[in-house]
């Protein structure tokens, strides 16, 4: 497993395990315990996922030293604002049974996200968080944001996969020193992702699946990935991307697959923004 150095010097694994949509707490705990047993050392959760307690229980039960596990959570919209965000992160610390977090992100660019970030900056300076950042910030909003905060975001976690490679966004993130992290690296199977002919054909050369090729492509583009699965066999397959390297020719073929558009909800769609803001914890 390769680590990448964030803009404040903190090392973060380039591949982690995501727990989005694993709402059943027992299943979430089992999934994280399986992931840790297989070798994952980065776990990505969020307040709105409702499974922080399960993640914390799994980490504790693993017996793995806390300093060897990279824990990420995210502050939800209904916890926005300096006071509420600060209190919510303290609750996340309790839920996760830890006295510090490795990374905390603003989950969505709505409500008082400047106040939220001030709370994260305070927690960062208090050494309760090792790195802070944002999620789902489009390039224009990101640039405006980074111009008005004290601590440059270490991460911007956005939808990124072979069909939406975020090439334009990555240029702006690189300019200001923020690392991109991919959510939805498999596009949730849309667009016949797992049977895509280009990915499948490339995979045959290396004895790898389309999914493994897609993850390896992102890794070689210096994009952090957090694939999710509740099946140990698939978890192991997702982790088995560190024993091969795609050729320049194969990388170019995959680069040409980019459609430069979201495969999910548009964060600039007023109806979707309304829906997100109505989701309370």
From TrEMBL:
Q: Which family does it belong to?
A: Belongs to the aldo/keto reductase family.
MF terms in GO: oxidoreductase activity
Kindly indicate whether the keyword NADP belongs to this entry.
yes
Name of the protein this chain belongs to: Aldo/keto reductase
Going by the record, the broad EC class of this enzyme is oxidoreductase
Keyword terms of this UniProt record? NADP, Oxidoreductase
According to the entry, every stretch annotated as the NADP-dependent oxidoreductase domain falls at 24-258
Does the record's keyword annotation contain Methyltransferase? no
EC number(s) reported in the record = 1.1.1.-
Which InterPro entries does the record match to this protein? AKR, Aldo/ket_reductase_CS, NAD(P)_OxRdtase_dom_sf, NADP_OxRdtase_dom
């Amino acid at each position: 497993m390769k680590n990448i150095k964030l803009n404040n010097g903190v090392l973060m694994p380039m591949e982690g395990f995501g727990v989005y949509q694993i709402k059943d707490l027992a299943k979430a705990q089992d999934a994280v315990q399986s992931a840790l047993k297989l070798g994952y050392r980065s776990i990505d959760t969020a307040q709105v996922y409702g499974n922080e307690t399960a993640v914390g229980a799994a980490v504790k039960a693993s017996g793995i030293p806390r300093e060897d596990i990279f824990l990420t959570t995210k502050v939800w919209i209904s916890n926005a604002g300096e006071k509420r965000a600060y209190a919510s992160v303290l609750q996340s610390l309790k839920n996760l049974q830890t006295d510090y977090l490795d990374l905390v992100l603003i989950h969505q660019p709505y409500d008082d996200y400047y106040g939220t970030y001030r709370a994260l900056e305070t927690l960062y300076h208090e050494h309760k968080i090792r790195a802070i950042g944002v999620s789902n910030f489009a390039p224009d909003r990101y640039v405006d944001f980074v111009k008005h905060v004290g601590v440059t975001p270490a991460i911007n976690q956005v939808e990124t996969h072979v069909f939406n490679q975020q090439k334009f966004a990555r240029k702006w993130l690189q300019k200001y020193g923020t690392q991109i992290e991919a959510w939805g690296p498999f596009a949730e199977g849309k667009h016949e992702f797992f049977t895509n002919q280009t990915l499948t054909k490339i995979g045959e050369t290396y004895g790898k699946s389309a999914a493994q090729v897609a993850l390896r492509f992102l890794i070689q583009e210096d994009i952090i990935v957090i694939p999710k699965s509740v099946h140990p066999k698939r978890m192991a397959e997702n982790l088995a991307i560190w024993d091969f390297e795609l050729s320049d020719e194969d990388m170019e073929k995959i680069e040409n697959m980019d459609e430069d558009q979201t495969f999910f909800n548009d964060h600039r769609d007023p109806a979707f923004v309304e829906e997100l803001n109505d989701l309370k914890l």
